[in-house]
C-alpha cells in the first residue's frame, strides 16, 4: 500500500507538472497572439490615420479655392449688380451686368469623383462624407448655373449693341434680359452660400482631423 501510494503521488506530481507546463505554454501563446493582433491593429490604425490626413489634404485646395476665389467672384458680381441697380434707380437704361469667369467654367470638383472612385472617403466619418458630398454637389450646381448664364452671355448679350440699348423696350428691360439679370443675382447668392459651407467644413475638418 505504501509503494502504491508513493507511486500514485509521483504520478499526480508528474501530471501536475505536465498540466502546469502546458498551461504556461498556452498562456505564452495566448499573450503572443494577443500582442501580435494588438500590434497589427496599431499598424492599421496608424496607416488609416495617415491615409485620412492625405485625403483631407487633398480636398484642402478646393476649400482654399472656394473660400478665396469664390469670395472674389461674389464681390465682382455684387459690384456689377449694384452698378446696374443704381443706374436703373436713376431712371437710366444701363448696360447689362455681366460676369465672365477668367478661368474654368466651374469650380474644380473632379477631385470628389476621384475620391469616390478610389473609395478614399471610407476613412472619413459618415457625417463628414455627407457634408463633403453636399458641398461638391452644390459646387457642381453652381458650375451648371454659370454655364447656362454664360451661354446667354455669348449668344444673346454679345449680340446686343455696345450700349445694350436694344435690351430695353419702352423704358423697361425686355423679359429675356430680366431673366438674365435674375440668373446673375441667384448665382451670387448660391456662390456665397457655397463659400459659407466650404469655410465651415474646412474649420470642422481642421478641428476633427488635425494634420499633425
Mean pLDDT: 78
Structural class: mainly alpha
The best one-word shape is rod-shaped
- Count up the helices: 4
Q: Measured on Cα atoms, how large is the radius of gyration?
A: 34 Å
β-strand percent reads under 5%
Give the beta-strand count.
2
Extract low-pLDDT stretches: none
Head-to-tail CA distance between termini: 76 Å
Biggest sheet statistics: 2 strands, antiparallel
In the sheet with the most strands, the strands line up as 1-2
The SSE string, one letter per element, is HHHEEH
Helical coverage, percent range: over 70%
Labels describing this entry:
single chain, mainly alpha, 4 helices, 212 residues, rod-shaped
Detailed description of the structure:
The structure is a single chain. The chain is built from 4 helices and 2 strands; from the N terminus they run αααββα. It has helices at 2-89, 110-118, 126-157, 175-208; strands at 168-169, 172-173. β1 and β2 (172-173) form a beta hairpin. The chain starts with a helix and ends with a helix. The mean pLDDT is 78.
Amino acid at each position: 500500500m505504501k509503494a502504491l501510494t508513493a507511486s500514485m503521488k509521483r504520478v499526480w506530481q508528474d501530471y501536475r507538472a505536465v498540466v502546469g507546463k502546458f498551461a504556461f505554454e498556452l498562456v505564452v501563446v495566448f499573450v503572443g497572439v494577443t500582442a501580435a493582433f494588438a500590434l497589427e491593429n496599431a499598424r492599421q490604425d496608424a496607416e488609416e490615420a495617415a491615409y485620412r490626413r492625405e485625403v483631407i489634404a487633398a480636398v484642402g485646395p478646393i476649400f482654399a479655392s472656394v473660400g478665396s476665389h469664390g469670395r472674389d467672384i461674389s464681390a465682382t458680381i455684387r459690384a456689377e449688380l449694384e452698378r446696374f441697380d443704381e443706374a436703373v434707380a436713376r431712371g437710366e437704361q444701363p448696360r447689362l451686368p455681366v460676369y465672365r469667369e477668367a478661368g474654368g467654367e466651374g469650380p474644380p470638383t473632379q477631385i470628389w469623383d476621384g475620391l469616390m472612385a478610389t473609395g478614399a472617403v471610407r476613412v472619413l466619418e459618415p457625417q463628414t462624407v455627407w457634408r463633403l458630398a453636399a458641398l461638391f454637389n452644390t459646387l457642381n450646381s453652381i458650375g451648371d448655373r454659370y454655364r447656362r448664364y454664360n451661354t446667354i452671355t455669348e449668344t444673346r448679350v454679345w449680340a446686343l449693341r455696345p450700349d445694350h440699348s436694344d435690351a430695353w423696350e419702352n423704358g423697361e428691360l425686355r423679359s429675356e434680359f430680366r431673366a438674365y439679370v435674375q440668373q446673375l443675382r441667384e448665382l451670387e447668392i448660391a456662390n456665397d452660400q457655397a463659400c459659407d459651407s466650404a469655410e465651415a467644413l474646412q474649420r470642422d475638418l481642421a478641428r476633427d482631423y488635425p494634420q499633425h
